[in-house]
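TA notes, week 10

Several of you asked for a full example with nothing omitted. So below is the full record: structure tokens for the whole chain, then the designed sequence directly under it. When grading your own attempts, check the secondary structure regions first.
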């Protein structure tokens, strides 16, 4: 789905690159988590994949350079859930999710044909049906996050990029979200930026770890989730305990003394 070769990005006027000669490829199906310390380039990478930033090197999506797609073509390929902004349009939840269908409209008259039940189904899957008539600005952070998930589902793209989708969600809705992603990853490629190492270790098919703009690790979660590598990545020590029910390793930062 994505083939990245020697991808770098340096902001205009800056001396140091935020991303440095990254190489990796993502499959057409599965969930890839992107982890790393603050400032390592995780969000910048997503914006490069969307061609929102002028990267150097190559980033091909479905065998075509990302920058060669029109904005409408990109919006048919990629759904993007950003970190929640405080500045939101004055739409109702349902109106906002309906806007996600615009890439599929040839004109304003085929709206009902293209929408079908997609909007209603997306609202239900994301847990938004009970407040679909409310204005987005009136919602809590967690509710807004679910609205963005509903919009991404309604956009019906083969690739979904998500920047910290678990932020603001309570445990119930976070679990519901990742159960949904577990179902979707059998038919889509999903990229999730996250700081939740425990969630990444059990939900991901692969993990891409960035540090200071460099690729630190890319592969199966088990190859990263070990004491020495995590200490090198985050410059601090971690301890591992066994989950009492599923026997998987849980990662905890070592207590400060």
């Amino acid at each position: 789905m994505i083939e990245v070769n020697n991808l770098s990005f340096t902001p205009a006027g800056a001396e140091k690159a935020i991303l440095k000669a990254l190489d990796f490829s993502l499959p057409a199906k599965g969930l890839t988590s992107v982890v790393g310390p603050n400032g390592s380039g995780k969000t910048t990478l997503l914006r490069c994949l969307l061609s929102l930033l002028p990267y150097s090197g190559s980033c091909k999506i479905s065998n075509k350079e990302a920058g060669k797609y029109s904005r409408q073509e990109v919006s048919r390929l990629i759904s993007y859930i950003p970190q929640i902004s405080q500045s939101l349009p004055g739409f109702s939840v349902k109106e906002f999710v309906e806007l996600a269908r615009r890439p599929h409209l040839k004109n304003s008259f085929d709206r009902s044909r293209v929408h079908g039940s997609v909007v209603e189904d997306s609202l239900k899957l994301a847990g938004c049906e009970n407040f679909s008539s409310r204005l987005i600005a009136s919602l809590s952070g967690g509710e807004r996050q679910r609205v963005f998930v509903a919009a991404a589902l309604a956009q019906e793209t083969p690739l979904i990029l998500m920047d910290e989708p678990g932020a603001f969600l309570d445990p119930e809705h976070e679990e519901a979200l990742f159960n949904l992603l577990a179902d979707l990853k059998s038919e889509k490629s999903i990229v999730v930026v996250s700081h939740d190492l425990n969630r990444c270790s059990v939900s991901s098919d692969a993990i891409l770890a960035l540090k200071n703009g460099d690729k630190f690790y890319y592969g199966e979660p088990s190859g990263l989730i070990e004491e020495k590598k995590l200490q090198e990545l985050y410059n601090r020590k971690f301890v591992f305990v066994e989950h009492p029910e599923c026997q998987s390793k849980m990662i905890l930062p070592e207590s400060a003394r």
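DSSP finds ten helices and twelve strands in the chain. Use that as a sanity check on your answer.
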